[in-house]
Amino acid sequence: MKKIRAAITAVGGWIPETVLSNADIEKLVDTTEEWIVSRTGIKERRIMVGENRGTSEIGINAVKQILDKKGIDPLDIDLLIVGTVTPDFLFPSTSNIICSKLGMKNTWGYDLTAACSGFLFALSTATQFIESGRYKKVIVVGADKMSSIIDYQDRATCVIFGDGGGAVLLEPTEEGNGVQDFILHADGAGGQYLNMMAGGSVNPSSHTTVDNKMHFVHQEGQSVFKHAVVNMAEVSARIMEKNNLTAEDISWLVPHQANKRIVDATANRMGLSPEKVMMNIERYGNTTAGTIPLLLWDYEKQLKKGDNLILAAFGGGFTWGAVYLRWDYNS
Q1: How many CB atoms lie within 10 A of CB 298?
Q2: Which amino acids are annotated catalytic?
Q3: If pLDDT is split at 50, 70 and 90, which confidence band does 93 have?
Q4: What pLDDT score was predicted for residue 1?
Q5: Among the listed residues 308, 300, 317, the one whose alpha carbon sits nearest the alpha carbon of residue 243
Q6: The domain 5-176: what is its CATH number?
Q7: Can you spell out the DSSP letters for 109-134?
Q8: Cβ contacts of 89 within 8 Å, gap of 6 or more
């Protein structure tokens, strides 16, 4: 009997309409276009402007694209997992809201929080539901409205993050394509370097937490950079070694878009040329759980059935990991 694997059979993506350029950032904090580009590779990012707009809007648009592309009845989706650190609310979950707005009445789901590794953690989790044979159609969303938790007077964070995300549909295949392997890690000791200290049960919202800006992302850039360079590069190389893959075997590296220097270090560790590395950080910045599905959305037409992809990420927590998959269709 052939092994059932979880194959990505459709991709959707969405970004807000408002552009926040480096020139705009220069008006907010003491920085320059040259400084931002040289250290991050970012030229602009998208920001969701207006009241009553949350991460669910990103997910709704991305998931609707998939349903329309595939001609799928919303009632046929079994499960929806949303990777995000900016849910609309603590509860109901963003997954529940997306399902309700799209008429996915037979779908259950939940939100998963792993910061910038959220999409990989959600994808790996969803894979198990397909491989077990229990479900036939599972959607994974990676999306964040980072502008909702960014202090635009903090140069360490406001130059980096943007809003956006995407989604993928997983379906079973016995042809050998789909998710082949994954390696995931977490180290809570790294939480001190990248976090949001208020809003949870330890520091509930109060005048003190608001006055002290504890509801914004805090990042110690140098510490995060050092850990990210080592761990994201190492786990990507390790999944190649584990599956007897060489640089020639890899069609694409699909890296979390945190910082161009981190991406370059990962590609170098894997022995990959720049032509095999997906990049869109210059246009979207770091959309946290949204970066990898946005890359797949941007590059979908360049992907060919049977292509070997390595998806890699590093995020707050710390969390990091890599997924090896074979692409399942030609666009």
Answers
A1: 17
A2: 116, 256, 286
A3: very high
A4: 66
A5: 308
A6: 3.40.47.10
A7: EEEE--GGGHHHHHHHHHHHHHHTTS
A8: none
Domain range list for the chain: 5-176, 180-279+297-326
- Kindly tell me the burial class for residue 70, based on how many C-beta atoms sit within 10 Å of its own C-beta (0-12, 13-18, 19 or more): middle
| pLDDT tens digit sequence for 209-251 | 999 999 998 988 888 889 999 999 999 999 999 999 999 999 9
Residue 315 phi, psi dihedral angles, 5° rounding: -150, 175
Query: What superfamily does domain 180-279+297-326 belong to in CATH?
Result: Thiolase/Chalcone synthase (3.40.47.10)
Kindly write down the DSSP assignment for every residue of 82-107, as one continuous string.
EE-SS-S-SSS-HHHHHHHHTT-TT-
> If you search the block for the tokens 């180290």, which residue do you land on?
187
Q: How far is CA 37 from CA 81, 159, 253, in A?
A: 33, 10, 21
pLDDT in tens, 15-33: 999 999 999 999 999 999 9
How buried is 227 (Cβ within 10 angstroms: 0-12 exposed, 13-18 middle, 19+ buried)?
middle
Three-class secondary structure of residue 313 per DSSP: strand
What's the rounded Cα separation, in Å, for the pair 288 and 315?
A: 8
Hey, is 267 helix, strand or coil? helix
| CB-based contact 140:118 (threshold 8 Å) | no
Quote the CA–CA distance of 127 and 149 in Å, as a whole number: 30
Whether the Cβ atoms of residue 163 and residue 287 lie closer than 8 Å to each other: yes
Report the C-alpha gap between 241 and 246 in whole angstroms. Answer: 8
pLDDT at 222 (0 to 100): 86
Helix extents (H) in the chain: 22-26, 33-40, 55-70, 94-101, 118-131, 155-158, 207-211, 221-242, 260-270, 281-284, 291-299
pTM of the predicted model over 0.90: yes
The Cα 213–Cα 225 span in angstroms is 23
Grouping H, G, I as helix, E, B as strand and the rest as coil, residue 138 is: strand
Same fold, 5-176 and 180-279+297-326: yes
Distance separating alpha carbons of residues 282 and 298, to the nearest angstrom: 13
Asked whether residue 267 carries a pLDDT value surpassing 80, the answer given is yes
